[in-house]
Amino acid sequence: METPSTPLTLADLARHGAERWPQAPALRWRTAEGTPRELTFAQAHDASDEIARGLLALGLAPGDRVAIQSKLRPEWTLTLLAAASCGLVLVSLLPTTVPEEIVHVVNDCDAKAVICEDGEQLAKLRVALPELPGLRHIIVIDEEPRADGEPGTTDPPTTLAGLRRAGSHAVPAAALARRRAAVTPDDLLVIIYTSGTTGPKKGCALSHGNYVAVLRAHPAPPRRRPDQADTSNGTVFVVTGPHTIALLMQLLSWWAGYTFTSFTGGPPDTMPAELRAAAPAVVPLVPLALEMIYRSVLAPRSPAERAELVDAARAGLRVRRMRVAGEPVPPELQEWFDHTDRTLFAEVRERFGGKLRRATVSGAPVSVDILSFFVGCGLPLVECYGMTETAAAATTNTPDDNRLGTVGKPLPGVEIAISDDGEILIRGENVFHGYWGYDEGEFGAVHDGWLHTGDLGELDRDGCLRLTGRKKELIQLSNGMAVTPHPLERELRAHPLISQAVLYGEAKPHLVALLTLDAERAAQWAAERDLPTDPRALAAHPGLTEELHRALDHANATVQEYFRAKAFHVLDRDLSIASGELTVSLKVARPVVHARFRELYEALYE
């Protein structure tokens, strides 16, 4: 989608939208009361400029970090645009972040200001404040703050509305224009904290240039007629929270003139209905969301009707492949296909609102059967691949060249290579410069321009990438969230009765745990309570189960939501070196444990 006037940074993104599509809706959402609201590109530009000038009024210098602790909402997007326009670096704190993680992230990136969503988020920040010596400003989106100041900050909290008013009065537009003009492609735009294989979260430092490289590769939307001046190029609907994919989609909306909207975050089973109502042109999905839509399509039907639809989708996929290959379709099959495409398949496509031009799925392994079902019904659904370290994108299929079972070919300007041990290497302008404050040779390191992803894969003869495994120990949940097992495992092992804790959950909706007992302490604990001391009997005893539930609740409270386990199984023996479950250095051989006890793990999801 590159043109001769393609910008090199995103500093002018808000103004670009206001100039090209002033009256088109840029943001669309519902209030807490359910009232539909929207902002035009012109209105969003004015609002983001006011936020930018307010941040400058705080004395923030180019490159200073501003953290935002909120769910995805219009103010999140406006703050992103504001930071981009004045050379500040936005740092995302998920709304599920606990105080201990706030301390780590804010101190690690040395954020000078934190924007909190509401009283709930402000309360967590207040708990963390005594350990945040560098924090200078607190801004609250929803709640009127207290009149007195907060310990550890030089200024009392203000509201976002107050910040906007102050900036409009204190900072002239010319001062913002000078800051905007000084932004370069190498300047950081965001720091996104993501889980490493060990230790605390690390911040992926991504520049303006990284995102511009990805946005250039996005297919251009259809040309609009002159009478469509007050409309956008369609809607982008995001189902995830304010993380990697959502950030890219917000930038894309301003880059290409889409209306941005997102799932309100209600009960998960309401998402398919919101998606349908939004009628998006573009929707990025994680496998969990795609699975929910799949279930919503099949659930109202009888078993016989479900089987009929699934069989029809298989036949539909066969016809579509024949057409792509230029093969003749038998007349009877073509007649059946034409009728089914107008009726049954059209009903499935309507689940996406009927205006879909492109749907992507990424973030975790996805069922080829589900992908095939939707493609067979005529949905422009493709699998792609990327990571936070590549500004969310690296390879993709296209509706016209959709190789099911692969994640497609590299984006323009991106190179993919496979190392001798099968690791996927990526090189391109989308690759981040490194982790904030880290210079190390582990996963995520960039050597000679090549990002070592930690993922394993292979390239077919046509250059399509197929994922084959994971070199790193991150667990990718079906909602697209990559979680490291180590923090929760470490907390569980701190309990006196627990010897080993091994989490599981690849492509699942949540984590579960396999626990083993410290034989000596467990026997002593059982004897003190007149419980059986035999390991097999004790492992199944309700008294032990109750104690370990308390241990899990305590451990879960130390990590944020996605890192928590919801069930466990107690093994009646410990892991051992002799069995291959532990290495000689007493580390858990995770693949061995997962394979050997897969049935026990899977039973925890029933």
Structure in words:
- It is a single chain.
- This protein has 606 residues and is of the alpha/beta class.
- The strands form 7 sheets. It has an 8-stranded mixed beta sheet with strand order 7-6-5-3-4-8-9-19, with helices on both faces.
- β3, α3 and β4 (89-93) form a beta-alpha-beta unit.
- The radius of gyration is 26 Å and the shape is globular.
Shape, per Cα inertia axes:
globular
In angstroms, what separates the terminal alpha carbons?
46 Å
CA radius of gyration is 26 Å
The helix-and-strand class reads: alpha/beta
**Largest beta sheet: strand ordering:** 7-6-5-3-4-8-9-19
Instruction: Determine the fraction of residues in helical runs and give it as a percent range.
Output: 25-40%
Proportion of residues in β-strands: 15-25%
Q: Low-confidence parts, pLDDT < 50 over ≥5 residues?
A: none
Number of H- or I-type helical stretches: 21
Mean of all residue-level pLDDT scores: 90
Number of separate strands: 27
Report the major sheet: 8 strands, mixed
Question: What is this structure, in a nutshell?
Answer:
With 606 residues, this protein is an alpha/beta fold. The chain has 21 helices and 27 strands.
For the structure shown, list the relevant keywords.
27 strands; 21 helices; eight-stranded mixed sheet; globular; single chain; alpha/beta; 606 residues; five-stranded mixed sheet
Helices and strands in order, then pairings?
Blueprint: H1 13-20, E1 25-30, E2 36-40, H2 41-57, E3 65-69, H3 74-85, E4 89-93, H4 99-109, E5 113-116, H5 119-128, E6 137-140, E7 158-159, H6 160-170, H7 173-181, E8 188-194, E9 202-207, H8 208-217, E10 235-238, H9 244-256, E11 259-262, H10 271-278, E12 282-285, H11 287-298, H12 303-325, H13 331-342, H14 344-350, E13 358-361, H15 368-376, E14 381-385, E15 395-396, E16 409-410, E17 415-418, E18 423-427, E19 434-435, E20 446-447, E21 450-459, E22 465-470, E23 475-476, E24 482-483, H16 486-493, E25 498-504, E26 511-517, H17 519-528, H18 535-539, H19 542-556, E27 565-570, H20 590-596, H21 598-603
Parallel strand pairs: 3-4, 3-5, 4-8, 5-6, 6-7, 10-11, 12-13, 13-14, 26-27
Antiparallel strand pairs: 1-2, 8-9, 9-19, 14-15, 15-16, 17-18, 18-21, 20-21, 21-22, 23-24, 25-26
